[in-house]
Amino acid sequence: MKSIFFGSLFLLTSTLMGGLNSCKSYPPTDLAQNNIIPKPVSVVATRGTFELSEGAMLYVQEGSDELLQLGQYLADILTPATGFSMAVKPSSSAPSGGNIFLSLVDVDNELGEEGYELTIHKDWVQIAAVQPAGIARGIQTLRQLFPPRIEANEPQEGPWLLATGTVRDFPQYSFRGAMLDVARHFFQVKDVKQYIDYLALYKMNVLHLHLSDDQGWRIEIKSWPNLTQHGASTQVGGGEGGFYTQEEYQEIVQYAQERYITIIPEIDLPGHTNAALSSYPELNCDGKATELYTGTKVGFSTLCTKKEVVYEFIDDVVRELSEMTPGKYFHIGGDESLSTPLKDYIPFVNRVQQIVLSHGKQVIGWDEIAHARLVENAVVQYWARDKNALKGVEQGARVIMSPAAKAYLDMKYDSTTVLGLHWAGYIEVDAGYNWDLASLVPGIEQEQILGVEAPLWSETVTNMQEIEYMVIPRLLGYAEIGWTHPSQRSWDEYKVRLGNQHDRFNVLGINYYPSPLVPWKDGSAAAPETEK
Ligand code: TNX
Hints:
Elements: H1 2-20, E1 42-52, E2 58-61, H2 65-82, E3 88-91, E4 99-104, E5 116-120, E6 124-129, H3 132-145, E7 160-169, E8 175-181, H4 189-201, E9 206-210, E10 212-213, E11 216-217, H5 226-229, H6 246-258, E12 262-269, H7 274-279, H8 308-323, E13 329-333, H9 342-358, E14 362-366, E15 379-382, H10 386-394, E16 398-401, H11 404-407, H12 429-433, E17 449-456, H13 464-471, H14 474-483, H15 491-499, H16 502-508
Parallel strand pairs: 2-3, 2-4, 4-6, 8-9, 8-17, 9-12, 12-13, 13-14, 14-15, 15-16, 16-17
Antiparallel strand pairs: 1-7, 5-6, 5-7, 10-11
Helix pairs in contact: 2-3, 4-6, 8-9
Bound molecules: ligand TNX.
Ligand TNX binds at residues 298, 335-336, 366, 383, 408, 410, 421, 457, 459.
């Protein structure tokens, strides 16, 4: 009854609205007219409308704690703006009557680990997946289909309508990430959580934390307390710096885990280590502690690769950090070790890889580590040199694509951008989007590519507003590059979907870069006039 009643009401309102203005999308009846980023594999519209109303329940298939948690995650997204008190309940079957149902299916080879099928019927909504991670991605699609004011923190006017149909979707690449450099400038736990929320919204699944560099050591290591007592006490420009206690790090890990995002910790070795060298004199070849450093030069520091204590130090750090990290990777840095002769660098990297393996983790390193003898399952992160990445591939390693000239979130958009650097060029929003992982480096094919990562180095970036300005909207492009098949992508079509994020960014309060290349569309995030 309810849906018939609403159906005729829609007809009436749309006829009225047709006379008043030409807004074709209200009430929504065409699921194909969506602005989902990253673009899904397939969308089939069934030309009806679903309404989420007060009293709707969030049912999850019984027997899974993970689904219960995901149900609560979805409820927490929908509750503040709708004002509905959505209860999350286990259920053995799909309930209709205006409810949402999250369920797992036994087999669907195509969907894989992160795929999902979202079906919006007139009187209920279902997200089905093989794994909970797929449900987590489907939740973001459902979220994006609601009007932007769904992102508000206080109750907004309804109605909360969705066009009916099915979104069937799965990613091209299993690794879709971003990096945050918390060493050059330190960012509080709440900022890291905010960053994680942006990744989650666009179905990214990795956050790589650059936890140590010349200017600061940002993670508590209980067996080497001076790393943070001394080595965390400053940052670029001489500010007060900071670090994460082990509890805080675990809080970040858990927050990410609840969003099906893997944290990859990086301890950059053997260069980029001045903060450690300043905290413990014995890590230096001359046995003397260095001064703390607050500038932005690179390549001047190195651990003393010949000293045994250096490997004891690394073993302790990798052990403590690995114990707190459920993800399978440990990033050993390895970039720009300009003060470490290659004849010392190679045996050093060989030995550090063994340490990582001994603590049960898989090695990732910047592309320079391919000079060493890579261990099984090592991953090379391409940022600068084709030759290094190819060397890695020849040794059987897989590659994460982070080409500085395309994917560095700290590169300026153009010559007028105040923040950022431009040593790798300017990266306007179109240039950040218009490339493909498998055709970037001749000789590196899709099978050898794990995925994409966009790093944000923080020499010039000091707070969340500045992070947002450099990251949004380019991040959405990298999310789509990792998720969507290249044959389904084009800048001309993407920029329209991106322009339609205008209201969502505003409701979320994001200080994004309003690129002149994007047709930003102010659709007014408020409820349509005729409904008031
Ligand atoms: C190069 S990329 C670096 C970083 C800097 C960055 C600035 C890489 C592996 N190393 O140390 O922060 O450039 O864009």
